[in-house]
Specification:
single chain, 289 residues, alpha/beta, two-stranded antiparallel ribbon, 12 strands
Length: 289
C-alpha cells in the first residue's frame, strides 16, 4: 500500500455549512499535490447517523465520530494516530483553503531536513486583505501571539521565513518531529496546544517556516467565540501549563515578576470590561495542577 505523502486532519464541532465549505476546499487543494494523500475528519459531539456531511463528501473522507466533544487537542492526537502520511496538516473547520495551500506547505517543508513544521498565511474571511496569522511568536514573558495580526496581506514576506511556530488553524507537521516530541498534549483540550508543540519542537532543534504562498481564509473564533468565558478559562489555564512545561529556569528567574504583573493587569482589565473572572479562574486552575 502506498504511504500518503500528506494526511490532512480536520476537527469539527457542529459547523454545518462551514464544514462542508472547508472540506470541499481541502479536497480541491489536495488535488494539487503530487502523490497519495488522505483527508481525515473528526466530528466531535456526533454519532453515526446524525447530520454531518453530505454523502458526496463522505466517500472521499475518512470520518471518525466522537460522541462527546473531546476537545481539539485530543481529537488531533487521535487523528495523527489514525493517519499514515509522512506529513500531517491541520485545517480548522471554519477555514477555507486556497488551491495551492498544501502544495506550497509541502514545498517549504521539504527545503531542509530540520524543518519540522510549516505555517500558512491566514487571512480573515470577512476582511481578506487583512492577515489573521503569519505564524506564531512567543515573547520574553511567554505570551504567544499571531505574527502580523491585523496587518495588510501585502505587508507579508514574499518568500518563506523562519518563525517560532505554526498556528494550528492551518499548519503542517513532519511526522518524525511529532513522534520525537511526543505529539500534541491532549490535556490542553483547546487553545495554545499549537504553541506548546512549537516550543517543544524548537527545544529539540526543529525549525518552523512560514510559507506566504500557502493561504487560507478563516472565520476567526467561530467555535467558542472570541470573548467567551470558556475560551478565557482555557487560555488562562493552558498559559500556565505551557510555561510550566517549557519556560527555562533562567527565563522564569528573570521575568517571573513581569509575567505576574502582566497577567494580573489582563485579569483586571477583562474583569472590568467583560465582567468575568474566568481568566483568573483558568490561571488558578493551572497553578493548582
Amino acid at each position: 500500500m502506498t504511504v500518503p505523502i500528506l494526511s490532512v486532519i480536520v476537527v469539527s464541532y457542529r459547523k454545518g455549512a462551514l464544514l462542508e465549505e472547508c472540506l470541499l476546499s481541502a479536497q480541491a487543494a489536495l488535488r494539487q499535490v503530487d502523490g497519495a494523500t488522505e483527508l481525515i475528519l473528526i466530528l466531535n459531539g456526533a454519532s453515526p447517523g446524525e447530520p454531518g456531511i453530505g454523502s458526496e463528501l463522505a466517500t472521499d473522507v475518512d470520518v471518525l465520530y466522537e460522541p462527546e466533544n473531546v476537545g481539539f487537542s485530543p481529537a488531533v492526537a487521535e487523528g495523527v494516530r489514525r493517519s499514515k502520511g509522512e506529513c500531517v496538516a491541520l485545517l480548522n473547520d471554519d477555514a477555507i483553503a486556497e488551491p495551492r495551500l498544501f502544495a506550497q506547505m509541502l514545498a517549504a517543508g521539504s527545503s531542509a531536513t530540520d524543518i519540522g513544521s510549516v505555517a500558512a498565511q491566514m487571512r480573515f474571511f470577512d476582511r481578506r486583505e487583512m492577515l489573521n496569522s503569519a505564524g506564531v511568536e512567543v515573547d520574553r514573558l511567554g505570551i504567544a501571539y499571531d505574527r502580523l495580526l491585523g496587518e495588510p496581506a501585502n505587508s507579508s514576506e514574499g518568500e518563506p521565513v523562519e518563525v517560532f511556530g505554526a498556528s494550528g488553524g492551518a499548519a503542517m507537521y513532519r511526522r518524525t518531529m511529532l513522534d520525537a516530541i511526543g505529539g500534541f498534549d491532549e490535556s490542553f483540550f483547546a487553545y495554545l496546544e499549537d504553541v506548546d508543540v512549537a516550543w517543544r519542537a524548537r527545544m529539540r532543534g526543529w525549525r518552523c517556516l512560514y510559507a506566504p504562498g500557502a493561504v487560507v481564509v478563516h472565520h476567526h473564533s467561530a467555535t467558542l467565540g472570541h470573548g467567551s468565558g470558556r475560551k478565557y478559562f482555557l487560555v488562562g489555564r493552558n498559559r500556565v501549563r505551557m510555561l510550566a512545561k517549557n519556560a527555562s529556569t533562567a527565563q522564569l528567574r528573570r521575568y517571573a515578576l513581569w509575567m505576574l504583573a502582566d497577567d494580573l493587569a489582563y485579569v483586571v482589565f477583562i474583569a472590568l470590561t467583560q465582567l468575568t473572572l474566568t481568566p483568573l479562574s483558568g490561571r488558578l486552575a493551572g497553578l493548582r495542577e
